[in-house]
Structure formats: C-alpha cells, structure tokens
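Trying the structure run again after the queue cleared.
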Amino acid sequence: MNTQVTIAGVDFKNPVTVGSGTFGSGMEYSDFVDLSRLGAVTTKGVAPVPWEGNPTPRVCEVYSGMLNAIGLQNPGIDVFCERDIPFLRQFDTRIIVNVCGKTEEEYEAVVERLADEPVDMLEINVSCPNVKEGAIAFGQNAQALEHITRRIKAKAKQPVIMKLSPNVTDITEMARAAEAAGADAISLINTITGMKIDIERRTFALANKTGGLSGPAIRPVAVRMVYQCAQTVKIPIIGMGGIATAEDALEFILAGATMVAVGAMNFVDPETTIRVIDGIEAYMRSHDVDDIRDLIGAVR
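Done. Tokens:
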C-alpha cells in the first residue's frame, strides 16, 4: 500500500502535514506526537524580524471552531534558522516553512535567507496586510498575488506554495493568478474573517475586533474551494480547513487535494494528525486502494 505523494519533485511519505500557526515549529508537540510520522511539518509564519503580534485577548471559542487574531507573532528569521530548523532536522519528516511579510521586500528577505537552509518547501502567506496598498491582503487582489508570486519565484531556491485566502469573491481567480506566476502548488484555505461579541461586557471578544475563523465550522467551504481550484488549475493543492478525522481528510483528497493539513484540531487533541494518518491507511485497506494517488480528485 503506497501513501507517498509528490509535490514539485518533493516526496512525502504520506499526505498529512499541519496547518501553519497551529503547531509552532513542532517543539511544543514533540512530547505528544512522533514528528517522524508526519508527511511534513509546516511551521508557524516567519518574518524577517520578530513580530509581537496583536494585543490580547486574541483567541476565543465559537461553535464548532475558534477565532484568532494572533497577528503572526514570531521570533524572526534569524532565531528560526538557528533554533527551529536544527530541531526539525532531527526527525524523518519534510520541512515546509511558512513565510510572511508586510511588504514584497520583507517576503523576499525571508526567502533569500532560507535559500541555503535545509528546508524542503516554502509556503507563502499572502493573507498578510500589504502596508503599501492600504492594508489590503496580497491574496485579495489577483494582480497583486501574481506580482508577488513572480517576485518570490525569482528569488526562491525551494519550490513555492502560495497559501490562498478564502476572503475573496472568486477563489479560482486567485488560483489561476498563482499558477500563471509560476507557483509550484497552492494551499487553501486560510481562515475566514469573523467576529464575536461578548454580550455581558458589551464589547468585542477579541481586542482586534475581528479574527480568523477556523475549525470544523469552515470545512464545507474549504472542501468546495479545493474542488473548484482542482477543476481550474493543474498545479498540486494542499487542502485544509476544519480537518478533525481521516474522513474529513479524505473529503479533501477526493475533491482534488494532493496533501492535507490539520490545523485547529491540534489545539483540541495533539494526536489528531496521527489518527488521520492511521485512518487514511485503514480506509485504503478496507476499500482495496493500493495507491493514495488513485483517490486524488476521484470525485468529479
């Protein structure tokens, strides 16, 4: 039984990774999860300099999910290269580094810094606010997305995944823009913008007022968007959004995702990824599927 998948020439032992921002760089989870079981570890977003993130409170629960407005807090690329990459290299897993920035130059700085580091792929978080364009996210304008993708591809030595925002009118337009600019893959979806109000305090539950909705509540939207993009572009897709079980992951794979990422459920149960991996294998055995690739995009 073969569970190996390949994206842009990079082989993964199985199609399961983690959602950026839900797993740190693996250190916090290594006592609970055998990182070598994962197809890849996708790191928290890394910027050229340390980011403090947004003021608290910045996380709250909602029905079937959570809202977060962490603000991409991270220690910066230097600490990441000195501390996190050597830690991850101890394990038999691929390393996907999530890259964030507020200007194109900031993205490029991180990509160039990672050029000679032993990491396998770069995932570019285009949901960051573009400070030069009135804080509109890079991923909410097709021309801006295509432009930044071309610039990053010109600098990157590793294959590039563009992580798409669902907060757009037409997700396929964004997928086409990323593909046209040379992206090696796309990942989707990032969180959906939401809000919660504390009626007792008569104020916002998050200091930022709005936050990103994740968890099982968004899965049907994510599956639909993955399917639409799989029908539109030829590059591989990493699907995510509310995956809690192997059945959830298989929905994404059947819709066209080559890999899947477990995100918010890592906070609920750190062993979710392992159960998803084991569950996919059990499904393949019970349905006489010899190769995971036979399931990718099988629903048309």
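The chain has a mean pLDDT of 94. Worth checking whether this holds up in the mutant runs.
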